[in-house]
Amino acid sequence: MSVKIMSFRQLVDLWPSVAEFAKDLRCRENTAHVMRFRDSIHSRWWAQIVEGAKRRRIKGITFEVLARLQAEKKITAAASARHAA
Fold this sequence. Notes:
Shape: globular
Distance between the termini: 42 Å
Helix content: 55-70%
Low-confidence stretches: none
Oligomer: single chain
Radius of gyration: 13 Å
C-alpha cells in the first residue's frame, strides 16, 4: 500500500531525519529545515530528492509527484489571493 504524498513537508518526513534529507540533497541542514518549514522545495533540488529516495528505497517520490505538489501549492496560493482581494 502506498501513501499519497500531500505536501513537501510530508515528503521530507519520509527521510529518517531532516539531517539525512539534507545529506542526500548535499545542502546545509538549515536549508533543509527551511524547506520543510515553508513546505516548499525549489525544483533545483528535485533530482537529488528523487535520487536520494531511490537510494533509500523510499517509494512514491517521482518528478511527477514533485510537480503535482508544486502545482497544487500554486493553485492554493492563487485561490487565497483571489479571496483576499
